[in-house]
Q: What sequence folds into this?
């Protein structure tokens, strides 16, 4: 799904590289506040979702070719992160909602069916 | 050979990752394949941030040779007093400042080990730490995922060559004499035989194990049953139907409860959950038919031989991976794997935090046999009421689902999908073993019999399909060379050599076909293509 479309559905505001959000596609997302976790799970088609707001997110996204980062709880990125995202062409968006809610919306958008369906 | 080195300043968080970033550029320019870049960069970035967090300065040196990337990271940090402890996930000595930034989760060193093929950590308290790791290039997707799961006991090999003929991917060779110096391909009396598995071609199915009568090939798993106390046991449903007509699943479960495992869980419901999720996925899927990832060997086959069908795979873990991912978190488990592909999937790929022992079914069967025998008199009337006898397990198969079992059938069906001939099928459930997991050669009972006995049983509440975090990726198995021009040249050379061979595909040389023999010779796996028909 296009990042711009996702941002719409999340009600998230794109604060860096909005023009790229129409091309960038993601297939999955990963939520974590640990750099190692994000590093492990990031790919060309992963949206990184995190409560962190520092510049290391941009580094992880760049190293792993992840097209976008979504911040949570309406938290603004710190200045180095914003600059780094702009410079490296990473789409940066801010979701007003918290972790669970954002993850729920992303799951609804990216997964055709809920995987945790109990049997 | 290319080498580069980077200085890393401790405490310089702003530039943490700069070296890895530069290294990534270098690897890209050289044309290293993406999977190897990914692994190298994950490991390099973790190593680099470790220096930033713990030391005042350090250096990362990288050497790139054909086939491998070696990285060495030295620092003058405080050193690691207990390396075993440092290797545990979650253990960290990072200061609060680092943790606030999202570092110090205690995953760095385990991450490096997981991402690399070789990992050496040396440390002297008060002096510093030296970390070395290597990422192999050629067999990138293979080395990470595979460890083949098949154990070879060359002393048992009689040189019957049956395994060569059944291997669906031509991954096996039988060399005469010690493998290390696989000199001549000609049979010579008195010299022991040794199978060799070309790991980059092996899909971990159990075909060769099924065929190997002397037992030279077996599943590589624990040889002794670990102490069951306080651990959970995971069994394939087929295990419950291995003990003859008079012994039902209730009896086996009851016998198992005598072994002091904290709990016994079976995979049947997880398989059902995967099937349901795959069907639900198919309702919206772009590429039809959707292929269920139920059998890890089939997934391997698709990743290697049918990469164009990767987009048909439903993005879930196989049922054993899904089940063990959850259960391993609850404590150490003992897992009965039905085949090498399950084993390899568990160890190599998805369940990274798996803390469990994997055993073959026979080991548990042997242990539980006396207890099962004691159950022989028990009537099904006095077993717990929550285990009703019911319909056969396959009744939930919906319209539009095609189940195909047996690896050779599976390959033909995959070819049909590739050609677009299966438009009338929505979901494909493919199993490498004949009759699915019931047909694993590691199980004693005939597959038709055990499958007939299988009943649907109370569904376990926790069973569910688990979405994969990592996408399926094509394996480079068949490529002759990283460089396409060289690969084309090699292909021409193989063709030429192949034309000099008789084309009988007799396998007497130790390679399954004349084509394979020519390829082995051209790729340098053997010194020369010695054909018994030509060279006597």
A:
């Amino acid at each position: 799904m296009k990042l711009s479309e996702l941002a719409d559905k999340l009600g998230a505001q794109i604060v860096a590289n909005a023009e790229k959000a129409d091309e960038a596609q993601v297939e999955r997302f990963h939520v974590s506040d640990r750099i190692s976790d994000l590093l492990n799970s990031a790919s060309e088609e992963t949206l990184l979702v995190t409560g962190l707001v520092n510049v290391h997110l941009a580094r992880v996204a760049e190293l792993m070719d992840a097209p976008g980062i979504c911040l949570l709880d309406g938290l603004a990125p710190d200045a180095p992160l914003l600059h780094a995202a702009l410079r490296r062409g990473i789409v940066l968006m801010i979701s007003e909602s918290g972790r669970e809610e954002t993850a729920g919306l992303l799951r609804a958008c990216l997964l055709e069916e809920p995987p945790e369906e109990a049997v | 050979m290319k080498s580069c080195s980077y200085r890393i300043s401790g405490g310089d968080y702003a530039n943490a990752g700069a070296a890895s970033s530069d290294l990534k550029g270098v690897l890209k320019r050289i044309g290293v394949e993406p999977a190897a870049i990914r692994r190298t960069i994950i490991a390099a970035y973790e190593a680099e941030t470790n220096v930033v967090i713990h030391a005042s300065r350090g250096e990362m040196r990288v050497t790139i040779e054909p086939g491998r990337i070696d990285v060495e990271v030295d620092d003058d940090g405080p050193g690691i007093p207990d390396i075993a402890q440092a290797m545990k996930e979650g253990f960290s000595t990072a200061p609060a400042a680092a943790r606030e930034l999202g570092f110090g989760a205690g995953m760095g060193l385990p991450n490096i080990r997981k991402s690399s093929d070789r990992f050496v950590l040396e440390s002297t308290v008060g002096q510093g730490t030296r970390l070395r790791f290597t990422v192999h290039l050629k067999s990138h997707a293979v080395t990470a995922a595979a460890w083949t799961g098949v154990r070879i006991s060359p002393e048992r090999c009689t040189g019957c060559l049956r395994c060569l003929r059944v291997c669906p991917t031509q991954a096996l060779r039988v060399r005469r004499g010690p493998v290390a110096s696989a000199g001549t391909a000609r049979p010579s009396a008195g010299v022991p035989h040794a199978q060799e598995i070309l790991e980059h071609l092996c899909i971990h199915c159990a075909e060769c194990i099924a065929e190997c009568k002397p037992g030279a090939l077996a599943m590589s798993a624990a040889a002794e049953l670990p102490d069951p106390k306080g651990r959970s046991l995971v069994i394939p449903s087929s295990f419950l139907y291995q003990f003859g007509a008079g012994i039902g699943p209730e009896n086996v479960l009851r016998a198992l409860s005598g072994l002091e495992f904290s709990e016994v869980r079976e995979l049947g419901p997880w398989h059902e959950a995967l099937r349901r999720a795959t069907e639900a996925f198919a309702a919206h899927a772009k590429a039809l038919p959707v292929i269920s990832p139920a059998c890890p060997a089939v997934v391997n086959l698709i990743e290697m031989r049918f990469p164009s069908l990767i987009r048909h795979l439903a993005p879930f873990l196989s049922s054993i991976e899904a089940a063990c991912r959850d259960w391993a978190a609850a404590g150490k488990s003992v897992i009965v794997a039905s085949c090498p592909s399950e084993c390899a999937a568990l160890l190599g790929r998805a369940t990274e935090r798996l803390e469990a022992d994997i055993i073959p079914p026979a080991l548990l069967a042997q242990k539980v046999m006396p207890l099962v025998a004691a159950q022989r008199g028990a009537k099904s009337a006095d077993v717990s009421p929550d285990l009703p006898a019911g319909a056969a397990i396959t009744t939930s198969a919906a319209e539009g689902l095609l189940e195909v079992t047996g690896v050779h059938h599976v390959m033909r069906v995959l070819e049909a999908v590739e050609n677009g001939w299966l438009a009338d099928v929505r979901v494909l459930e493919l199993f490498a073993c004949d009759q699915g997991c019931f047909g694993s050669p590691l199980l004693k009972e005939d597959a038709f019999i055990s499958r007939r006995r299988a009943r649907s049983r109370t569904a376990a509440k926790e069973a569910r399909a688990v979405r994969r975090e990592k996408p399926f990726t094509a394996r480079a198995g068949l490529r002759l060379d990283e460089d396409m021009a060289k690969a084309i040249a090699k292909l021409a050379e193989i063709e030429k050599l192949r034309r000099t061979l008789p084309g009988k595909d007799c396998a007497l040389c130790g390679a399954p076909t004349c084509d394979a023999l020519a390829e082995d010779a051209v790729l340098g796996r053997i010194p020369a293509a010695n054909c018994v028909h030509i060279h006597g």
